[in-house]
């Protein structure tokens, strides 16, 4: 993808098709020079910083590919959505929202956080399981925003729109004057929608995707491979992208009917190829996706099993109780101050 400009908004491709863990960024060249999701190459960021100071970094959500380069902006304010703001006060909250605690337990979560201190910048593939940028780039929070806010850049304005489901606070940035939207990980890749975090939700994810259609926008700037879509291209891509959810439902249904457990279903691979599941993050995402599908299928009666098997599936697909940790999941929250979560006792 080529760099492109809409008014004062520059689209900065992530390099390598912006394939995870790269990500396309937006640079708003205005009075308050702002970069949104700086997941592009380090050399590009040096170039941007060489052209002038960046006042503000805004992350649409806390996922690695969107925040990994925050640490390069030592003199900029760092902003994250209010709902996920605890992630930038204690990295253990990333382990909670991301799925580490849900899949591997608290002790492993503690070890992950402790282990990060010994890590380097690895650029490891396929996932950044061990990369110190989790710590470097989540260590500071200077501002939060909430859905419905209007962000002022000087001459340019963007409206923050809700995009939950992918992560609990994920947000779209809609520029009404330029008629563009930054759609973050509503990205229309072959993989389909991602809702493999403890804070993800299948139905909310679908709803967020469908909400794009109603926006008065001409261009939809995705974070990854698909690049920039016109409205026509978006309408074309959306059904196939949403079909992935149904396809996963079909696979999970078949396996539930065969009497497989949630864990067994995940180990066979539903969203990811089985060979990729050796990576702890990939397996974690797979397992959380499967849990959400299995729970939804069984609890809505779409799949009917013996009573004993049903209760076992419901038990094995229990979500992590994020409210109990203090995360604010209410849609009405004012976001006036960052949410307070239970601190982790590291002993
Ligand atoms: Fe993401």
Short description:
By secondary structure, the protein is of the alpha/beta class.
Number of domains: 2
By CATH, the architecture of the largest domain is named: 4-Layer Sandwich
Number of helices: 11
Q: How many β strands by DSSP?
A: 13
Largest sheet: 7 strands, mixed
Bound molecules: fe (ii) ion
CATH homologous superfamily grouping of the largest domain? Ribonuclease Z/Hydroxyacylglutathione hydrolase-like
Q: What's the CATH C level of the largest domain?
A: Alpha Beta
Class by SSE composition: alpha/beta
Q: Radius of gyration, rounded?
A: 20 Å
Beta-strand proportion:
5-15%
Helix coverage percent: 25-40%
Amino-to-carboxy terminus distance: 48 Å
Poorly predicted parts: none
CATH topology of the largest domain, anyone? Metallo-beta-lactamase, Chain A
Principal-axes shape call: globular
How would you summarize the topology of this molecule?
Blueprint: E1 4-6, E2 9-12, E3 25-28, E4 34-36, H1 42-50, E5 56-59, H2 64-67, E6 77-81, H3 92-98, H4 100-104, H5 106-116, H6 133-136, E7 143-145, E8 150-152, E9 157-162, E10 171-175, E11 180-184, H7 202-211, E12 219-222, E13 228-230, H8 231-257, H9 262-268, H10 280-299, H11 307-316
Parallel strand pairs: 4-5, 5-6, 6-7, 11-12
Antiparallel strand pairs: 1-2, 2-3, 3-4, 8-9, 9-10, 10-11, 12-13
Bound molecules: fe (ii) ion.
Fe (ii) ion binds at residues 61, 63, 166, 185.
